[in-house]
Design brief:
Oxidized Rhodanese, domain 1, 5-stranded parallel sheet, Metallo-beta-lactamase, Chain A, alpha/beta, 14% strand
Length: 362
């Protein structure tokens, strides 16, 4: 797996026959664990890749093809490069389709393949490892402290005096219609926890929540799963109560892909594509500026507050995250593109030629 202590468990049936393996972070469906996460200075990622190769060849691949595979992660996790959305599989199928289990793959080739194109690990990984080592509050304590309804006045006071981040976890369409100024959107309906971990750099950041009705405990729970245990409460009654208290809200302009294409015909426009590198390289709008959400905090200087930007991702979730962060940093002329590239690719905007993502090399 990622580290020396990673373990795979083999389950045998009542007759002693191998039935299933619980592979943790060693073998995923479609991928293997990334070997660059050990926090030991005397081990390189190449050293760990060699160990991973040996573990796979000597321990897992000799097992029968009908053994069931239960990995620890699926699609959306940053623990691998190409994880399947499936949660359970058969070892024989992995031997046929998983690039890392190719029978004729030499050790040197494996090391090169498994390390190629690995993005930097999310910043919260190392912090979570340290929390696991040093200890943390019991979850019941975190939930009791964080799942607290707050009236608008108390909510605003905490935001002002505790330097709390207002995190809006509703659907992106609700955020677009109206949100608290300077709030950040990361919706529960998407890959919530990984994006929190990637984008909120202080794991001890005090957080105030704007949630869909009945979702406060879920939000606190999912924050805690990636180590964000400092939730102070949520806005009781949601945005409606905020407005009823006479407090300001802001909106985010949004256009359809067809409207974007029409505006591009009428004038030169600036398009920000916030998808991942592989998505952008696979196909994008001619002239669109790549501005990957993963690295938004490091690349603010690449765009100008004096320009208007049309922001899109693949489907409309990440673009609103990006726009909310940019708005909070003083970028005021932002327009979200509804449904993202999934809709844009059906317009007559000029595009680059499609390249199959599996053929791309980072």
């Amino acid at each position: 797996g990622h580290t020396l202590e990673s373990t795979t468990y083999l389950l045998k049936d009542e007759n002693g026959k191998d039935h299933a393996i619980f592979t943790g972070d060693t073998l995923f469906l479609g991928d293997v664990g990334r070997p660059d996460l050990a926090i030991k200075s005397d081990l390189t990622k190449e050293d760990l890749a060699v160990m991973l190769y040996d573990s796979l060849r000597n321990k897992i691949m000799p097992l029968a093809d009908d053994v069931v595979v239960y990995p620890a992660h699926g699609a959306g996790s940053a623990c691998g490069k190409n994880l399947s959305k499936e949660t359970v599989g058969i070892l024989g199928e992995q031997k046929k389709t998983n690039y890392a289990l190719r029978e004729d793959m030499a050790k040197e080739e494996f090391v090169k393949e498994v390390l190629e194109g690995i993005p930097p690990p999310p910043q919260y990984f190392a912090k979570n490892a340290m929390m696991n080592k040093m200890g943390y509050d019991a979850f019941d304590t975190v939930l009791q402290k964080g799942d607290v309804p707050l009236q608008p006045e108390d909510f605003e006071a905490l935001a002002n005096h505790e330097s709390a981040l207002v995190l809006d976890v509703r659907h992106q369409k609700d955020f677009i219609k109206g949100h608290i100024p300077n709030s950040i959107f990361i919706g529960l309906n998407g890959q919530f926890a990984p994006w929190v971990g990637a984008l909120i750099t202080d794991i001890k950041q005090p957080i105030l929540l704007v949630v869909p009705e009945g979702k406060s405990a879920e939000a606190v729970t999912r924050l805690s799963r990636v180590g964000y245990d400092n939730t102070l409460g949520y806005l009781e009654g949601g945005i409606a109560s905020w407005q009823n208290a006479g407090k300001d809200i802001e909106t985010l302009e949004s256009v359809t892909a067809e409207e974007l294409a029409q505006r591009a015909k009428e004038a030169d426009i600036n398009i920000l594509d916030v998808r991942k590198d592989g998505e952008y390289q696979s196909m994008h709008v001619d002239g669109a500026q790549h501005f990957a959400l993963d690295f938004i905090n490091e690349q603010m200087d690449q765009i100008s507050k004096d320009k208007t930007y049309y922001v899109h991702c693949a489907g409309g979730y990440r673009s609103v995250i990006a726009s909310s962060i940019l708005k909070a940093r003083g970028f005021t002329d932002l327009i979200d593109v509804e449904a993202g590239f999934s809709a844009i690719k059906h317009t007559d905007l000029p595009m680059t030629d499609y390249v199959c993502p599996s053929t791309l090399k980072s």
